[in-house]
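Illustration: DUF1989 domain-containing protein.
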Amino acid sequence: MTQPADADARRALRPVICYPNDTLPRPDMALYAAARAGASKVSEVLIPAREAACFRADAGQFFRITSVEGPQVGDLNLWNARDLSERFYSGKSRALHGTHLTLGERMWSSFPYLRPMATIVGDTLDWYGIDEFGGSVHDVIGTRCDPYTGNLLVGTQYHHCCHSNLIRALADETGLALAEAERHVHDVLNVFMCTGFTRDTGQYFMKASPVRPGDYLEFFAEIDILGALSACPGGDCSSEHSSDSAACYPMLVEVFAPDPAALAGWHSPLVNGYDQSHGR
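Result:
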């Protein structure tokens, strides 16, 4: 179609931030740092390459995801450990913070709860920033590799994608049937994954993650957490995902408990205050 005479003027209009976030409740990073300094490890889970596993962290504890043995990205799901209907809401976390999460930013829960589930308190890749391609790490834009899209695009029946990995892990942890567990698996935080959108076509891209063994992403658990992490079958996602050919490595999740006195004055956030009347 012929573009209108004022097309350039329309394109030149300045953008407006949808959700200015300066009124968001701010995490007390100094308090968290002091509590973390005296914390001791209480558990750990090694996530096998191309598989997923669950872990738990109580409110007020810390959990750390570390790259071990080789560069590896992971797909993270979080739930309220006492109520699986409250789960990580990647879309709202993206709207509040941006396409990629880092220090001081939070993983927010689904409606009607909409409260912080976990706060990022440590990120050894925070130096990466945004590269010349528009890529950055720890994204909340990708959904997770899954067997349905693979079947749609190339007709495969591949079961070690992150969606299926997370389903199996949640089913094993809770005793749910696979079909029921699948209803609870949701869009992820792509830990260590380097992604963005192409400027010409707007397509979601991935590139080799800058993660190296010893790099970590660490969180403060704001509520009682049940987590599941999949060590993606794409490895560092430098070429493909949902693959048996990519080099893949384990990932380590460690949980640390501080002295309760170190969190004096802190309390787990309440659920969202909206009255749910919806105009009726």
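Reading the tokens back as a structure: The chain has one domain: 42-249.
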